[in-house]
Amino acid sequence: MPRQDRERFLAEPRVGVLGVTDSRGGDRAPLIVPVWYGYEPGGEVLVGTNRENVKSRLLRTAARFSLCVQDEQRPYRYVSVEGPVTAIEDPIPPAVREALAHRYLDPEEARAYLTATSAQLTDDILFRMRPERWRSADFAAFAADFAEEGAGGNTG
């Protein structure tokens, strides 16, 4: 995907899958978990989480993470970013938490969610990540070629 397309895709409200190295020892694979995130083209990826959970501890230790988002509708597309944690804001700024809720929920649900989870304002922190490495794919061209070949094969 061209840069502008992949940044616009990442900025859309999708559930991301965060990956971080699991440093707890043994034969552990990276921790992979779904997250709400924020992103504006050219900016940083924002992820909020509880300051005491495993994800938070691993993010502090690794000081970097990956995030992958996808479109499950055909033609399939995805964007993956990886980079360093540039800042940890403790506690999460209320405006950021509110923006994330409104990004993923309709206005009434967002208000109810924010009220019901108001204690998280003192428990949650915010990780900021600067995207350094991007991977992306848009299978629209492949799907169009495949559809043309399939249509051609049915005309005989």
From TrEMBL:
Pfam families: Pyridox_ox_2. Keywords: Oxidoreductase. The keyword Cell cycle does not apply. This is Pyridoxamine 5'-phosphate oxidase family protein. Signal peptide: none annotated.
